[in-house]
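Supplementary Methods S3. Complex input for the adenosine monophosphate-bound model.
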Amino acid sequence: MTGRYAEDYQRSIKDPNGYWADAAKDIVWTKPYDKVLDDAKPPFYRWFAGGLVNTCYNALDRHVDEGRADQIALIYDSPVTDTKAKYSYRDLRDAVALFAGVLAELGVAKGDRVIIYMPMVPEAAIAMLACARIGAVHSVVFGGFAANELATRINDAKPKVIVSASCGIEVAKVIPYKHLLDGAIDMATHKPSHCVILQRPMEKAEMVSGRDVDWAEAVKSAKPADCVPVAATDPLYILYTSGTTGQPKGVVRDNGGHMVALKKSMKTVYDIDPGEVFWAASDVGWVVGHSYIVYAPLLHGCTTILYEGKPVGTPDAGAFWRVISEYKVKAMFTAPTAFRAIKRDDPNAEFLKNYDLSCFKTLFLAGERCDPDTLKWAEDHLKVPVIDHWWQTETGWAICANPMGLERFQVKPGSPTKAVPGWDVQVLDEAHHQAKPGQVGALVMKLPLPPGSLPTLWNADQRYIQSYLEEFPGFYKTGDAGFIDEDGYVYVMSRTDDIINVAGHRLSTGGMEEVLASHPDVAECAVIGVADQLKGQLPLGFVVLKAGASKPHNEIVKELVALVRDRIGPVAAFKTATVVKRLPKTRSGKILRGTMQKIADRQDYKMPATIDDPAILGEIDEALTEVGYAHGRKG
Ligand code: COA
Ligand code: AMP
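Predicted complex, serialized as structure tokens:
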């Protein structure tokens, strides 16, 4: 691969208008845009202002019109239901147009919101694309969230319609969805006019008369709906992600910039050409699922795979190899935790011997820090480049990667390589000065951010500024800390806030603390993320009980675990809490979560100079030992 990176990168930073105007030629515009970058109202930047466009048209109809009608657009592979299905571009366009007709019939129009709370079934992608087709704004909520989390999102997005299913399937467990949905609607102050329910054969949902509509019945009588042109700057979707409180942030994605950036990334980052097979083993509830199961591969005319299963246990640690060989996947994308699960179950990769993986060219990993052991294991066994890349729900696509379609840099384990063209990544120290190579600081990006990144938070411009733009004026704060080495390789080391990453799922410990604090016996609490061999991190709670709390501690802990599962969801994987007499604090009353986490992870720690009572750290150490975390080391 010849080195095109430096030239491409420099152009993207020095001439963003020219760079992105060239990329925009790959999109079909209903009306051309007036401006590439509209910077009239900083810090709010808009891309392709004045343009009219339709995302669904670009993802489906244009390919049907341009000769891909019979090419497979989407493969559904569900080992948990023993189902496989293939949709050509024509099939998928027709199914989407029909469901768009259902939504239109229920009164959904341009700008209205639709919440999608579904498992990994093709109908989830069909519902997303149907919203895009009629200019409605979808908000997908991950199935592993509890009713309370869904209710929060209903109140914020105010959907006219919610699309859901009777159940999801977790390995062999059927997870009924309908009571969660009904519970969320009961809790929410906003009520949708209708719910469309996909009845799956494993579980039949009770319907609420007058409100609930059966998906299969509705499509029988629906009229296909046409694509509705929307402004390039209009929202395509809202995706809620963990913030520093229990109130999630509604990340907004626009239509025009999103398409331009994602389509370009398919070649630049993933080295994928139209017609090839790309697989992101994630969930449509996460940004990876939005960008790389649904939108990017379809915008690029590829075949995408929607996999309803796990890396292990459905049925075994060879599941990924089976899918890759069966559908001739050229590149796949998943989280390192999935590979840690495979490595744990099949350390010598014996299952690989059963499959022909000659089609497979690259493995991409993201969502959490990729530990060098996992990277090496994957490289050794797969014998293809293993590319760690770094991004966030907010950015929508990779900030840093080894840009496989541009230039292949030597991999440095622990680094997601270099800034992708479009992203001006810098490290700032506490005084807001640019850090020296190798010096750890806040990872930030100079404004304006490239197309595809969030223009704002849903109905919360001030929170957008406060969360991302205020601390480092002129820059976007990622919330990650790290450094850049002499060769321009970026290293992402840790979060600077309370976000933890559990099996590639982003969660807020602050949100969990709010739940623990709501227990009647809890006076004070702290939740930290402790290192876990499989999931990367796991939450661990410390609670101080109110005077007079009389229940046995183990009973209270059980209630706390159940409370987090009930309020946030099983995805939080909150399974351990311990009762302590006091929490370590600074003299000004700030809980020393960082020190507690170091003790739990057996890292060296320095006695904080501002600590109120050093003896408490000994108590914390003892409490940790009781719940299986051995003694920390005081440095
Ligand atoms: N609906 C309902 N429940 C769900 C769910 C969903 N969509 N997804 C997960 N859950 C539940 C699980 O059943 C589990 O419940 P349990 O406590 O009753 O066992 C809990 O949430 C935690 O799930 P998970 O984090 O997936 O852990 P796991 O032990 O079931 O599986 C891995 C571990 C590593 C195999 C799994 O996390 C995985 O495949 N991760 C890939 C990461 C990924 O896709 N990340 C997305 C970003 S790329
Ligand atoms: P999410 O918004 O769920 O995609 O989570 C984004 C966060 O996950 C980032 O801010 C990082 O903290 C972490 N993350 C994602 N990818 C990587 C990576 N390749 N290396 C290190 N951390 C990562």
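The mean pLDDT is 96. The first helix runs from residue 5 to 14.
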